[in-house]
Write a structure and sequence with these properties.
The structure holds 2 protein chains of 2 kinds. Chain A has 20 helices and 23 strands. By secondary structure, chain A is α+β, with helices and mostly antiparallel strands. Chain B is α/β, with parallel strands linked by helices. In chain B, 22% of the residues lie in helices and 25% in strands. Chain B has helices at 96-102, 127-142, 157-167, 190-201, 293-297, 320-328, 350-358, 368-381, 385-392; strands at 6-11, 14-24, 27-32, 37-40, 45-47, 69-74, 81-83, 90-92, 111-115, 147-151, 168-169, 174-177, 208-213, 220-225, 229-231, 240-242, 249-252, 258-260, 273-274, 282-286, 304-309, 332-337, 361-362. Classes of the chains: A alpha+beta, B alpha/beta. Chain B: Its EC number is 6.3.5.-. Chain B: It comes from Methanochimaera problematica.
Chain lengths: 610, 408
């Protein structure tokens, strides 16, 4: 597809958790917890309030439609009254501010002279206060991948949803850098490339959280005649281009539906029909159970409600998303009926009851009267929007990259000042004092060119979480290859064996590597030593047990004995015996001696023998 | 430049559009169209020609006259607070009407008369304002309302509730309520506290009480006796606790079911009386180890002094002479305890007996703050030492009791 031709414009927002010691507005640690470790829980209601401009945000207003806005929160011994929304916030964490400004500097941005902390209204329960604290810290940068960076904001992470309306407070308040690009990207691949570059840049600081959920991308997409749609929470970079492709398809399909509706002279009839009686004896369990079944007729919509707009999604799914806001499970439409236990005969009766013409579509919702009424209203609203084409909205990603409606795009009315935190001035002197870290791409190049690692290992090492340890090991005299292989390959192999490599401290790894360099132990013993240390043994004990050092004399004697036992073989094979005998010696030495030394002695002993 | 002016600002090579908010610390604060505020050099800001956005008119409150009549009396505080553009901090500037507007559910409970005798932060409360408040409450009772809600800042709410308990005798509920988290946040406790206070104001209660969150959950409010309640936490929503007595009852939320305890004074028990005479020359001090007797002497010529002593009600022996001097000069000194829970007894240890001999009055199981306003009120009525002592040790408004309940 020619994306330029269809006018694709995309921008991204990257949300990256920062790996600071404490949270953004309290001094709790930034650790995630198992919900089984909670030491308390409480319930709160949230409701929309007016901004300082006297307006209520439309997204918040939509959220207020929800009948029951009581939320449950899990508290821990690592969370405090700030997360509980029962204590004013502390001043902004300077470590997080340093880090966000360093990232800004890396992208050539200009810091804001005076940073103001804002409250962004979010009443879906993910923030105990009903708002997320956020602040604009720098503006206008550029990255080589070709996108302008509009802004970087420092904000607090929201609470993680456990299930339903229950949230866990451990994640709430972890600092989050939000990087927003301009809508400069014109192809799905470019979106992926820019996201990838920014991700690399963030990791170059060495102070961002790693792992699933620690980085999330929101994608803003529009095509010509379409509308800006924000897709929230793309966690997997590998899916980001697919998300863009599917959104383009959706917008194109909605535009097709729009044109088709206009061509047909379609309209939305607001007459509601109570058809509960009609389905009294139905075989459909959902309909039979319902206290009230309401129907509407959509003149000229036949075939379009069931029209696929994205893999697995139809216009009917969009209407259903809107209806679900009222608490109903979904809807039925005649484009997909008879199905779900509804017979053709029932469909015919229904069509007749609401006087539907063949070109009309009929939609059903079943629930309590109140919910069904609310849902029908939402369906009428969404059906009307089909004549506009693509509605501006916030959507959430489903598996595989299709999306579902979440809420309208929020406006500026959702922001008002956080009165409990004073503004922060950014002086020129402070800004100048921030140093830019080496990019991982540069690091990779340096590891290859200067340290002589092979290209793949150089890359793996540069991007590894153990990179800082690697550089420290090199500084302390460990050979780059040994350090890289141990930290990348060996640890990975041990992990695959099921060994808890996280329990091995960095200083223990360093001690083991240094002892190899000193010749106190052989590099062959490293996996065994790491295994022992992971089980709680000290490095010294492990070395004593697994690899007591062996003197050159002892080694020579051992080699001589081995050769003696195989003298016929050696005499027959000559220097070719080196390889096979080497294996035997290595096994015997069990990592107590360095392979290079063994090979050296072995060579000279074979020579002696011949 | 005025607040609300539409402006341009060229910053970081970008022409930013926004609204001028104010100038602070030498920077112009602008609300960008994205909603974010930033502070920039004032020289970078230029006024735009475009017309400022209109602020939506506050919605008119339509009340149902058929509902029972309640009064809502606002004195300010967090429950009635709003952001101030000038300082960026929260100030008290709501009026009673705004409270009804901010808590839409109220208008389904009752028809409200609104009064604003003061708009202050609660630390600025004074006996003069207490007198105005007492008069307003008394007049409202006489106008025939079913109950009264007084919105108040939480920091001195307990003092005011105790003061009103003495100054006004009431046949109807007089409910003090506040909020710990400001009204402009979606999580504010003002809605639940407000709704529960309205329910309590319509209940069978007939005394001055405080209604606030009972736990950190949004599920129950406790009804505390005005003379027995204390703010026990700086910021939690369940900061208010009854001391030395169980709460008068509770209000469930959101059902708003009110349950009153048997010891709560019932509606109609008392006739309305206003007695707003207060002696303002009364002090309250907290004894600490090594306290200089001069601190007590500094209260010479005060009509009354409350000492929050240690444990059963003690000061150091070094302070006893100064206490004796004050008592001899006519200052009424009442001993209470820093422990809050439990009762004063100056007959156990020597120092206590010395204090009694020096002339102090044992403050029974009264909270120091309640004893403080009570002494102001008693001194407003009486001059005779024996009579004052008798009144201070008599239960007038549930502030003290013969038996101390077990448990903290």
């Amino acid at each position: 597809m020619d994306y330029k031709e269809i006018g694709l414009k995309a921008g991204i927002e990257i949300h990256q958790q920062l790996d600071t010691k404490t949270k953004l507005f309290c001094r709790c640690p930034t650790v995630l917890r198992d919900t089984a470790e909670k030491n308390g829980e409480f319930q709160r209601y949230l409701r929309a309030t007016e901004s300082e401009m006297g307006e209520i945000d439309r997204a918040a207003e939509e959220e207020m439609k929800k009948q029951n806005r009581i939320y449950t929160y899990y508290a821990y011994d690592t969370t405090c009254l700030v997360e509980n929304d029962e204590e004013p916030p502390s001043p902004m964490n300077p470590e997080a501010l340093d880090l966000s400004l360093t990232i800004a500097k890396m992208m050539g941005m200009k810091p804001v002279e005076q940073i103001h902390i804002m409250r962004k209204l979010v009443i879906d329960g993910s923030n105990t206060s009903g708002f997320q604290r956020t602040s604009l810290v720098a503006l206008n940068g550029k990255i080589p991948a070709g996108a302008r960076i509009e802004s970087i904001c420092l904000e607090e992470e929201a609470a993680q949803r456990v299930e339903g309306d229950t949230f866990s407070l451990d994640r709430l308040g972890i600092p989050l850098a939000e990087i927003t690009t301009a809508p400069d990207m014109n192809t799905p691949e470019q979106v992926r490339e820019v996201a990838g570059y920014i991700g690399m840049l963030l990791r170059s600081t060495g102070k961002v959280k790693r792992g699933l959920g620690t980085i999330r991308q929101d994608v803003n997409i529009s095509i010509r005649d379409g509308a800006r749609v924000e897709i929230k929470g793309v966690q997997d970079l590998n899916l980001i281009d697919e998300v863009v492709r599917r959104e383009v398809k959706r917008q194109q399909s909605l535009l097709y539906i729009r044109d088709e509706l206009k061509k047909r002279g379609a309209c939305v009839s607001e007459d509601k029909f109570d058809v509960t009686e009609l389905f009294k004896e139905t075989g459909s369990a959902i309909l039979k159970r319902a206290k009230c079944i309401l129907a509407i007729r959509l003149p000229g919509f036949n075939g379009l409600v069931g029209y696929e707009i994205q893999p697995g999604r139809r216009l009917g799914s969009e209407m259903s998303d809107y209806a679900k806001k009222c608490g109903v499970g979904g809807l039925f439409h005649t484009d997909e009926l008879p199905a779900y236990g509804v017979t053709q005969e029932e469909v015919d009766k229904l069509r007749e009851f609401v006087s539907a013409e063949p070109e009309d579509c009929v939609i059903l919702v079943a629930d309590t009267k109140k919910k069904a009424n609310c849902a029908i209203g939402q369906i009428i609203k969404r059906a009307g929007m089909a004549f506009e084409g693509v509605p501006e909205e916030t959507r959430k990603m489903l598996e595989e990259g299709s999306t579902a409606y979440m809420r309208p795009l929020p406006g500026a009315a959702r922001m008002y000042p956080e009165t409990d935190v004073l503004p922060v001035n950014i002086t020129g002197k402070y800004w100048d004092s921030l140093s830019i870290p080496e990019l991982l791409t540069e690091k990779e190049k340096r590891f290859f060119e200067e340290l002589g690692l092979d290209p793949a290992l150089a890359k793996n090492m540069a991007y590894s979480v153990r990179c800082t340890l690697f550089e420290r090991a090199i500084e302390e005299g460990v050979k780059p290859n040994l350090a890289a292989r141990t930290l990348y390959s060996t640890l990975r192999e041990l992990r695959r064996e099921g060994i808890d490599t996280k329990s091995i401290s960095e200083s223990d790894i360093l001690d083991i590597l240094k002892s190899v360099e000193k010749g106190d132990t052989a590099k062959e013993a490293v996996p065994d030593l790491l295994r022992a240390v992971s089980k709680g043994e000290s490095v010294t004990d492990a070395m004593e047990k697994i690899a007591p050092s062996i003197s050159r004399e002892e080694l020579t004697e051992m080699i001589q004995n081995i050769l003696k036992e195989r003298s016929d073989f050696v005499k027959e094979q000559g220097m070719r015996a080196l390889g096979p005998v080497m294996g035997v010696v290595m096994k015997e030495a069990r990592g107590r001696a360095d392979g290079k030394v063994i090979s050296e002695i072995l060579k000279s002993e074979i020579k002696n023998m011949l | 430049m005025n607040s609300g002016d539409k402006v341009f600002c060229t910053y970081a090579d970008t022409r930013l559009k926004g609204t001028y908010i104010t100038e602070r610390d030498g920077k112009a604060v602008i609300k960008l169209d994205s909603g974010y505020n930033i502070g920039v050099e004032p020289a970078l800001v230029e006024k735009s020609e475009s017309v400022p956005a209109k602020h939506p008119e506050p919605k008119k409150i339509e009340q149902n006259e058929k509902l029972s009549k309640l009064s809502i009396i606002s004195t300010g505080g967090t429950i009635a607070s709003k952001i101030d553009y000038r300082t960026g901090a929260v100030t008290s500037q709501f009026e009673a009407d705004d409270i009804i507007r901010a808590i839409p559910g109220l208008k389904d409970i009752a028809f409200f008369n609104a009064h604003v005798p003061a708009t202050i932060l609660s630390e600025n409360m004074t006996p003069t304002i207490w007198r105005t408040l007492a008069k307003t409450i008394y007049d409202e009772i006489n106008s025939g309302v079913e109950g009264i809600i007084v919105t108040h800042g939480t920091d001195t709410l307990a003092y005011s509730a105790a003061a009103m308990s003495f100054m006004v005798e009431t046949p109807v509920p007089v409910i003090f309520v506040g909020s710990q988290r400001s009204a402009d946040r979606p999580s504010s406790d003002n809605v639940m506290n407000g709704m529960c206070s309205a329910a309590a104001a319509k209940s069978d209660l007939g005394e001055v009480a405080v209604v606030m969150h009972a736990t950190t959950n949004d599920d129950t409010c406790a009804i505390h006796r005005g003379t027995r309640v204390r703010k026990m936490h700086t910021s939690r929503r369940d900061a208010f606790r009854s001391v030395n007595t169980p709460p008068l009852g509770k209000v469930d939320y959101p059902s708003l079911d009110v349950k009153l305890d048997s010891h709560a004074v019932r509606r109609g028990t008392n006739e309305p009386v206003l007695n707003d005479k207060l002696e303002e020359k009364v002090g309250l001090i907290y004894f600490y180890p090594g306290m200089a007797p001069e601190i007590i002497r500094a209260h010479d010529r005060y009509k009354g002094l409350i000492i929050a002593g240690t444990g059963l009600g003690h000061t150091s022996s070094a302070c006893i002479d100064s206490i004796r001097e004050l008592c001899e000069n006519g200052t009424e000194i009442v001993m209470t305890s820093q422990c809050l829970n439990g009762r004063v007894c100056d007959r156990v240890y020597d120092t206590g007996r010395d204090l009694l001999a020096a002339g102090i009055i044992e403050g029974e199981d009264m909270l120091p703050e309640a004893a403080f306003v009570k002494l102001m009120w008693v001194l407003g009525q009486e001059n005779d030492h024996d009579r004052i002592k008798e009144l201070m040790q008599t239960n007038l408004r549930g502030e003290t009791g013969g038996c101390t309940p077990h448990g903290l």
